[in-house]
Amino acid sequence: MASNKKGFVLYADQKDLFEQLSNEKAGELIKHIFAYVNDEDPETDDLFIKLAFTPIKQQLKRDLEKWSQTKKGRSKAGKASAEARANKKQQESINSTNVKFVQQSSTKLNKAQQSSTNPTVNVNVNVNDNVNGINKDKKEIFTKWLNYRKEIKKGVTVNSTINSLIEKFNSTSVSKCEWVVNQSIQNNYTGLFWDNYKESNNPSKSNFANPII
């Protein structure tokens, strides 16, 4: 018999065969069958035993072949099931990694959006808080410049810069402040070019260096 096979089958329709034998011969036949299925390669010179065992032997071989095929099928199915479970586990791991990546990316994006939003809030606060420090005769020009910077997404967010601008405006004539601000707005500059005021008739872009925002 095959290894790991612990049993065999005798069929009900084989009862007639045993009944045609004497009890002694039937006992010998049973012993012969057990010796065969235990791979003892039994031999007999008894013609009755040989004739009776032949159909039983053929049936045992057919049963053994059927059992072997069933075992292979189960083994194949077990491997396929194990492979499917491994693939599922791997896919779940990939999906979990993707979810974590998306969540992390979303968190970073939210932080970036919050970071990009905060400057605008700071601009509003800083401008409103500090615009009162400007001389009254230059307040309108100063506010015009800050609003322009906000419109081009270059809002002034640092208090020290606001204070520097206020100091510069307060120490400069109204006409010069107005001219410098208008020139920067008309030419879409992001800074104020105070030194070009002397060239007000025909200012050159190439001379616009070291601006003060």
Write up this protein.
The protein is mainly α and 213 residues long. The protein folds into two domains: 12-89; 134-207, no CATH class. It has six helices and no strands. It has helices spanning 15-19, 23-37, 47-130, 139-151, 159-170, 174-186. The longest helix has 84 residues, at 47-130. The two termini are 97 Å apart. Residues 118-127 have low confidence and may be disordered.
Short overview:
By secondary structure, this protein is an all-alpha fold.
List the helices and strands and how they pair.
Layout: H1 15-19, H2 23-37, H3 47-130, H4 139-151, H5 159-170, H6 174-186
Helix pairs in contact: 2-3, 4-6
Helicity level: 55-70%
Q: Average pLDDT value?
A: 82
Helix vs. strand class: mainly alpha
Give the low-confidence spans.
118-127
β-strand percent reads: under 5%
Report how far the terminal alpha carbons are from each other: 97 Å
Biggest beta-sheet profile: none
Features:
mainly alpha, 67% helix, rod-shaped, 213 residues, 2 domains
